[in-house]
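Need residues for this backbone.
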């Protein structure tokens, strides 16, 4: 399973979501942020998953 986060710009500051989303939920949240009109440059980025060494 791949995880995604959102990055966006608001009032000149770049923000990153704290929680991770599945792709469908990330795209839905992106649309919500874009509709809020208080943000710009909303991007969905994949979160790398690191495996622990045995």
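Answer:
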């Amino acid at each position: 399973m791949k995880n995604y986060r959102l990055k966006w710009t608001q009032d000149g500051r770049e923000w990153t979501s704290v929680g991770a989303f599945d792709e469908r939920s990330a795209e839905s949240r992106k649309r919500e942020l874009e509709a809020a009109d208080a943000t710009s440059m909303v991007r969905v980025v994949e979160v790398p998953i690191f495996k622990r060494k045995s």
